[in-house]
Records
---
Amino acid sequence: MKPPTKKSMHPFAEEKLRVSLKELADVKSALDQHAIVAITDPSGQITHVNDKFCAISKYSREELIGQDHRIINSGHHPKAFIRGLWTTIASGKVWQGELCNRAKDGSLYWVDTTIVPFLNPDGKPDQYVAIRADITERKRAQDRQSELLKELEEINEELDQFAYVVSHDLKAPLRAISSLAGWLVADYADKLGQEGREQLELLLGRVKRMNALVEGILHYSRVGRQHEDQVWVDLNQLVREVCELIALPAGISVTIANPLPTLRSEKTRLMQIFENLVSNAVKYMGKPTGEITVGCESQAQHWQFFVRDTGCGIDQKYFEKIFQVFQTLAPRDEHESTGIGLSVVKKNVELFGGKVWVESTVGQGSIFYFLLPKSAGNGEGGESLIPKK
Amino acid sequence: MKPGTPILLIEDDLVDVMTVKRALRELKMTNPLRVASNGEEGLASLRSENQCAPGLILLDLNMPRMNGLEFLQVVKADDQLRRLPVVVLTTSAQANDRLESFNLGIAGYIIKPVDFTNFVEVMRSIQDYWSHCEAAP
């Protein structure tokens, strides 16, 4: 870009030119401070590189000028990807993307790249300007993150598998203890005496409890392990099924406050959520009569469900604790409970990408809320919960 | 299955063997019970010359040396043995075990109840069914 010769110029135009040249130089120098810049001719031969380009590629300017970009080709990208890049810029369009290049010493670096074709009056590119930013660190962090995530998933899976195997193997000796203790009572009742019989009864009770705990672990581990096909689930129907399943006591009613949606999802997971919440509401009603209400509110991104009871309520300081595995609030001798139910609810809701919480007043009752996203189809593993149109 | 026809129990857990024996006693079942503690012993018992064939095989799955599924593979490939009815009696509720067992042509699959009273009920239903059931010619 040579300025026109001096003598032909009007002094005013000359001044204007001087200013715009300075502006141009300023912008270029600012760009050189920030970005990795290269210019090539239409055939892809490098005609200009800035210092940053030389620094990151570890080639000198002399080594680069006249070469094409194959000199820094890493071989990382498939041929079709590179062809796509060339097709785009050769047709006069800007290309943007992330490229992996190889420096002179063989090390790889990543650059976020914008290639702008500049066209001659015929509409054909006469040069390409490539502006890049070093994103090697970001790429490394991303790789590391997905590696860690994969590891975490594997560990979780292993843990679920472990819980399954352990609990399964624990049940066999438990069954034997239960049988043997039962036979002792049956065969030697007269020889045992009152105290002996009581002790054996206690032993049998504890065996039952342990069996329930082991069943609980099995159940909890199954939540993460097993996936089933997505089907349309009418939640009104599902709540009715849940009520039949848990055999409601005569004085306790379950009402659906407003029509519940029909969702495409894994039925067993939804079943586990509602079954545990409703059966808890029944179990902790604390009196022979009571009302349980199930309802739903449609929000922008979520369905917000609730299960409300008129039971004994929960002290606020336990609002977090009750969702942890094996946590119960009543002594096990009063209330046979494994403390698994709410943790199963939480695990299921979170697998859907939702959340669960409780609001409660002691003596008045509790409301368990949970959110299910209307569509959680962001990437792999995300269960979609699409409402039926 | 006549009252005198033997039942072959293939089970490695001593207490589980006791459980079956007790249940039979409680139900006053007079069928003699033969016990093998793994698949290999079960096969040996079935193939020994001087014993009549059992009317029913009760089979555990998790056993040392030769497990229940391996036993089934051998039995169902054997022309002499394949028609013997086998009922799997196991703690495993796993879908895989059930699928494989039924693929191998079992007559029934029962998960061992934890509670002895329930176990007796299970044995009672086995007795009810097999006492009315005709054996293959």
---
Amino acid sequence: MKHIDTKDLERIISLYLDDELEVEEKQKFEVFLSNNPSVAREVEILRTAKKNLSARRKLPANDWFWLKLASAIEAKDSRRRNLLPATRPQFALALAGILTILVVGTLYFRDAPLFHKFFIDKKNQIQNTLMTGNIIPFFFNLDKDDVLNFALFGSITLDSTNNTTLQVKNTEDKGSQIEIVRRNLHDEIPAVSVADFCKKVGIVKPQQQLVMDSILGTYKEKLIASVLVSENKEIAIHERLADLNRAMVSTIAASLEPAQRSRFQRILEEHEAPFAVVAMNAPKVEPQQLLRSIPRIAHTNSYVVISKDTISIAEMKMNIDSIRETVWNHRTREHRKAAEEMMRELAELQRRFENNVIIGGTHSNRVRVFSNENAFSINLEAPAAVSPEYEIVDMVRPRVITPPTPRKINRGGVTVIGDSAFSFEFSADDEAVRVFRRLPRGEFKFEIVDSIERSPKMKIMFKSTPSKREFEAKLREMRDRERELIDLDSLLRESERTVNSEKPAVPKKSPKVLEL
Amino acid sequence: MGKPAVININNANIPHEEKSDDSLIMLFQSGEKDVFRHLVKRYQEKVRNLIFSIFNESDIVDDLAQEVFIKAYEGLPNFRFQSTFYTWLYRIAVNRSRDEMRRRKVRRFFTFQNVESSSNLKIENLVTTTFDDENVKETIEQSLNKLPEKYRMPIILKDIDGLSYDEIADVLECEVGTVKSRLSRGRAMLKEMLKPLVTN
């Protein structure tokens, strides 16, 4: 083996590395290698590469895999079973249809004009409310970080420029709110990556990381199926998207150990997330139980369908397989473009929405639309009979953001709020800050409503005071005391200036009296 | 004359875990769908790791592996025992991965600038790494990921999964000769990428 052409050499090296050369050929090649150190070195590189690849790290085992797969197979099987002739729902429907035609036909001939009007009205209503054209999921390329951020903050970016955000809020028993918000450029969207989240919460064991990964993966599908878009620029949002948000937080909380759960709660608090964990000390729920409690995507779902002029609640059939197929066929770019265009138009049309929106669909009485300069929000009353869709281990409650203000009366600078609280407001200059700091906290429970950093005025709200008279008496006492204190402070400052003559003197300031 | 090869699929003395793939498939085909679980448990980690080797991303592994097994579940009633179960399963996994790669390619086309800048970054990193570094494995994997799919796949199946030439040919649905030539070409390309690191 004196000379080998390059292509042949490549082939022989490859066979040699795989130990596929005949004994004689192998010996000849080894002699060739000993005479050609450059080729020998190349063989060594490849041998090292091969050795390293065969010792490549393996993924940690996923004990959840079969469970998830079994659910998916079961769902597929049940769908297929429905198509069998004996159980085909169309049979029952067809029978019901024939009976209806017979009854309606008889009645129609008796009262034709009334029926005609009824059908025309219904037709118009359907044309106004339903989505048209191909329908595909809006979020077809979500990653698990997006899913986690939706779980934590209830918000998800709708357009590629990050200007429009979809936000959901759950208002406990009253229902939910879906908002499409135009974001100011300086507003930061809170974002936590899965890796950071695991690190902060203390999810270090590969097994627990897998559980987290599976939870997010399972909810990802649901989130994808929750926001749909049609090629005619209509957008459909699952009516129970806010419940999905709550269920996600609850499932994550349930999968954690109590200590991790309190760290999770801290993250939620830090980022002012819409939900807070309440069942801090409840034991960790087993992964299998958790996964079983996450519902599958139903066939028929209720969606809020938003078009340029209408908002309606419509029952829509969801075939996740055909949707996947559409996504697969790369027909998504146009849809996405159309949807983003609609987002921009919606931003322009907010005022129009306020006045001219038509609310349709069978459950339209549950929908209320509000809009302002930066957002329009759709408030949905909870359905009369709430299906137990998300009855998973509920470990969360909505975070209380602001205290309710039932009744406000302004009397001489003091705002009385309801029966047991009142507030007052004053300029937030140095003296005011001093007054605030010296307020008798033991006697009065209070909180700053507007912080001094943000507002030139300071507003303090008192809670659970004994009576207004007692409070006014206390205020007088405080004011007198503060005058003395402020005077004393001014004198002290003045004396300091005199001692330290190097410092430029500042003209004496007359003490300010608080106007209450 | 030898006995005809009859597999006693109902041998109650052997637990399902110990039955051969073919026995389990025959049971499946005779209506005992539950045995699929044993096939999954037997190969789930192999399939997951194969997908991980192809994409180097742990995020998508479980979703893709799930789709592979669903496809296998749907196709198993028509399995004709012309190849082994696991090469058939690998074939499904490879084809599904190819679909995913195609899909990504289309998406990458629309975000060309990002891809270009990120790939430049990777090359820079590679050049500054020496072959004896602790990162040697990562460097090799990065180089492998840069190979075109048709050369990369045989290397993954051969060097990572340890399949024979015949098995690779079965998985990739091509001739053994094609497997050999793709392996040698792929390795030559890999060697060219790794060579400067050794020289440095």
